[in-house]
Design a protein that fits this description.
The complex is a heterodimer of chains A (84) and B (111). Chain A is an alpha+beta fold. Helix content of chain A is 40%, strand content 20%. The N and C termini of chain A lie close together (7 Å). In chain B, strands 1-2 form a two-stranded antiparallel ribbon. Classes of the chains: A alpha+beta (84), B mainly alpha (111).
Amino acid sequence: MTGKVKLYAISTCGWCKKAKNFLNENNIEFEFEDVDLLEGEEKERAREEVARHNPRKSYPTIIIDGEVVIVGFDADKLKEALGI
Amino acid sequence: MNPEELYQRLEKVAQASGYRLNPDKQFVLDLMEGLLTNQERYGYWACPCRLADGVREKDRDIICPCDYRDADLSEHGTCYCALYVSESVARGLKKPKPIPERRGQTPEPIT
């Protein structure tokens, strides 16, 4: 049981890379944005989206079905949330 | 400088000052690449795991090693990025885990 997965990441971040690898290795379809590579309004929009779900504004922030929020790369939490 | 060279350099500095780097070398090399990218992009070593502002004054607290490193090492056994780790993590007795962001959660450190 997996829903829509959105990953907000930073391109230079080790934990974000681990999260991307985990999702790929488990064949989970996901969208991601490397927020540090965005510019102007796009960057602001992504920052606001992260802040709305995660007040500490940290990365990676993973949102499943628009409601389950997982902050940081935690394989166990991801497995549970994704039902894998 | 390439990631391997930076790794060798940081490891020496860390050892000389009583700090330890994450024993997962590939993880550290990725972070080295991130630091080099940020050096090129911003002109300073902004933390690779945080969203830098790009203005040195605003990012001063997150220039690696960041102002939060020692507090995070004491409390969690790693810095925010898990580049620097405690002795028990370095020796493989404890696995590094992601830790909560300290920046903005506590009074600004006195620098």
